[in-house]
Design the sequence.
């Protein structure tokens, strides 16, 4: 798990505009009364509580099933660091033990998640296959054509432009192009070469043509596998609602050039 930096700085740009009359200066405007400072929305204690939550969440304390005693030990180490003291143990020597502890917790979590995801996938696929509109591919991907398009079908090497929403089996949205990537940014579709994404997408999007909409049910093996990624837990089945906006031919692979011989080859005896 990557620790993200949440300490951000906002910069407020102030623009000064004015115009000088060529005849006589305009009368000065009456200065506005200074606005009263806004009351803080949160207390310092609340901000620090949220910071502590972020540290715990980012490091998977719940998923890795840290006990209260283990959390207390982590806090003890943080208090030592706060006091400006050195580590109570030599890091080069204790490092392997830290790695062993966290690896064991990660493996336990992954195994439990794999078992849970397998049960969810079996139930989901069993229900979805009852829908006569759903097609099951030999790979394990299921798809339903929600709306036929009118254009060409993409090839694996084509560049596609899409709007999509990805959800887990429990309905949690883990990614979507229908929301801005950054606050204030416009909503824009995603664009990528089809054979550079997860295999379930590469195969499934080729079943719809330009202008069409499709629903994909992708098993973990054709998604992000046992490792998962970001907000996607290990061994997760993925559900995507996709609108294929555009299809463009991908760049052709450059032909392989065979270098010319630099010298006359020796005669065969």
Sequence:
């Amino acid at each position: 798990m990557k620790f993200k930096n949440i300490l951000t700085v906002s910069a407020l740009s102030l623009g000064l505009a004015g115009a000088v009359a060529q005849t006589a200066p305009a009368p000065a405007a009456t200065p506005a009364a200074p606005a009263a400072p806004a009351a803080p929305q949160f207390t310092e204690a609340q901000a620090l509580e949220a910071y502590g939550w972020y540290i715990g969440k980012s490091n998977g304390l719940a998923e890795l099933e840290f006990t209260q005693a283990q959390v207390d030990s982590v806090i003890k180490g943080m208090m030592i660091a706060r006091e400006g003291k050195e580590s109570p143990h030599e890091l080069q020597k204790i490092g392997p033990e830290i790695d062993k502890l966290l690896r064991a917790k990660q493996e336990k979590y992954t195994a439990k998640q794999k078992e849970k995801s397998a049960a969810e996938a079996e139930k989901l696929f069993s229900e979805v296959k009852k829908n006569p509109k759903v097609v099951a591919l030999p790979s394990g991907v299921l798809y339903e054509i929600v709306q036929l398009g009118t254009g060409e079908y993409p090839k694996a090497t084509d560049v596609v432009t899409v709007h999509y929403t990805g959800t887990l089996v429990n309905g949690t949205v883990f990614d979507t192009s229908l929301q801005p990537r950054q606050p204030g940014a416009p909503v824009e579709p995603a664009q990528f070469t089809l054979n550079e994404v997860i295999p379930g997408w590469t195969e499934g999007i080729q079943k719809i043509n330009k202008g069409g909409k499709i629903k994909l049910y992708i098993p973990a093996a054709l998604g992000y596998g046992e490792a998962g990624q970001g907000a996607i837990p290990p061994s997760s089945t993925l559900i995507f609602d996709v609108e294929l906006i555009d299809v463009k031919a991908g760049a052709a692979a450059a032909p392989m050039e065979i270098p010319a011989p630099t010298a006359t080859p020796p005669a065969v005896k």
